[in-house]
Amino acid sequence: MLRFVSTLPLLEHLVLVRNVPPYPDESVSEHVEHFFCVNYPDHYLTHQIVYNANKLAKLVEKKKSLQNWLVYYQNKYEKKPTKKPATKTGFWGLWGNTVDAIDYYTNEIEKCSKEEAAERERVISDPNAIVPAAFVSFKSRWGAAVCAQTQQSSDPTIWLTEWASEPRDVYWNNLAIPYVKLSFRRMLMAVGLFFLTFFSMIPIAFVQSLANIEGIEKVFPFLKSLIEMIPKTIGVSIPMKATFFITYIMVDGWAGIAAEIVRLVPLVMFHLKNTFLVKTDQDREQAMDPGSFDFATSEPRKQLYFLLGLVYSVITPILLPFILVFFAFSYMVFRHQDAMVKDTVERATEPNLNLKAYLQDAYIHPIFKGGDFDRPAAVDEEGNNPLVLTKRSSQRGSQRG
């Protein structure tokens, strides 16, 4: 059973800070701590700096894949010890030299482990691997709100703040992209969207000119006799289609929502994965992952039934009870799925939740979970802020302009 941790209320205590300006006498972590202890002495709690660990993350994923293949071949050898499994060294094991699979993957894991250890040490010890950004935690929602929605410096290009995303929604690769380059990419996307919207207005304007009968008669005068029949046909046929939509709602809507309880499609997909893709227990655990709600398919269905209700509420009101039953079923089913299948745990409502301990480790890069690296001390809850150790000769640089 998959267990999710809901942290939405806790996000109100967190702010993402970008473009931390460099300071010659302090590290990024010291600079962030000094800045917020000075400017938010009653609200600052702790922070977590961001590492550029993109290469390390790729090595970790590569090692996991190699270990998975090693376990697969070891299990295969245990089932049939008379024949040692073999593999090819080429792409996906489809071509190349044929070698002993267990020895090959054991050696590859050793090589990858050495590369991973060296890269991990480099990331932790190299100051250049630290991104000029940090996740800052506050004791109060008010302090976080003020920080996230106000300009922190007279220079509008530094100390840029925004609300932090939920930890599982953080795309760590993008945090390593310089903010100027990221802004340039956003500008390119905005320009591309503008031209896409602008040029799409041409066919839209043409179709819009045909949106009324008079416009169609002007563009296609030879269809005048046919166009005169359209209002009569539509006026008669739309109410008659109510029976079809009632049947459609009962079959697709009611039955579809009932099938969501059974989760037939995920069950079939699991057995297909288990038959053709699963090699180890880790693969089986991933195949059993129920995932999240598929908004791409479930949300349009709800909008369709809502639209049908709007259209037929005046023409054929008898359709409305069937739609109301559909939405009532949807409410009960998805509440059940959220409570039972997903097993949501609202940790934010726990009375004994240690806010400092949770927030201090919430925004650590996944590859550093459980490791030893720079964790700044949290300010105590009584508000007795410790003295901010600094190597500066002046504190003007840390104060707001």
UniProtKB/TrEMBL annotation:
A Pfam family per the record: RSN1_7TM
Keywords: Calcium, Ion channel, Ion transport, Membrane, Signal, Transmembrane, Transmembrane helix, Transport
MF terms (GO), sorted A to Z: calcium-activated cation channel activity
Membrane-spanning ranges: 187-211, 304-334
Any GO CC annotation of this UniProt entry: plasma membrane
Domain of life: Eukaryota
InterPro entries attached to this UniProt entry: Csc1-like, CSC1/OSCA1-like_7TM, CSC1/OSCA1-like_cyt
Signal peptide residues on this chain, from the entry's feature table: 1-17
Compositionally biased tracts (Polar residues): 391-401
Domain CSC1/OSCA1-like 7TM region: 229-340
Region of interest (Disordered), ranges: 380-401
Start and end residues of each CSC1/OSCA1-like cytosolic domain: 15-174
Protein name: ERD (Early-responsive to dehydration stress) family protein
